[in-house]
Amino acid sequence: MSVQRYGDAELDAIRDQCLQRVKRMSWVSAGAAAMPVPLLDLVVDVGVLYTLIPEINERFGLAPEQIDAMSEPSRLQVWKRRAERGSALIGMVITRTLIQRSLQSFWIRIVTRQVAKFIPLGGQIIAGAMGYWVMRQLAMRHVDDCYEVAAAARGLQPRR
Known about the structure:
- The chain has helices spanning 8-34, 40-59, 64-68, 72-85, 96-104, 107-116, 123-153.
- The protein is built from 7 helices and no strands.
- Mean pLDDT is 83; it is low at 1-5.
- 37% of the residues are buried.
- The chain is an all-alpha fold.
- It has one domain (8-153).
- It is elongated.
- Helix content is 72%, strand content 0%.
């Protein structure tokens, strides 16, 4: 797999495409959260992230094999920026355990979502909205991390 070099416009386009994908996949999470089946939404969330995170990494050129193929200065820049951003999902082989650890940062909202789905008249709507929000926040944070790291590795100034 070759290392891809992007300019500002290409990197921005990749970011926009990834954000659109995140929004679509967040609706899957919302649908699962609205169903009154205990823990179904967590299983769906882990599955969605297990697929989505490596996709985003690859689009930005930050999959493990893509990072290994980079020049030494670029690779060092990636690891430095990754550490600065505190992301555990960039450039790593994604495992279910790693995804579950990422979801733990949202544990209060996840527990609230589990309880809310059993409240009559509106609980499922609340759970669905929270499912959408949690998935969207987690995945969008990853897109932003990848965007910043990819821009820094290529010597570009990220635009927001």
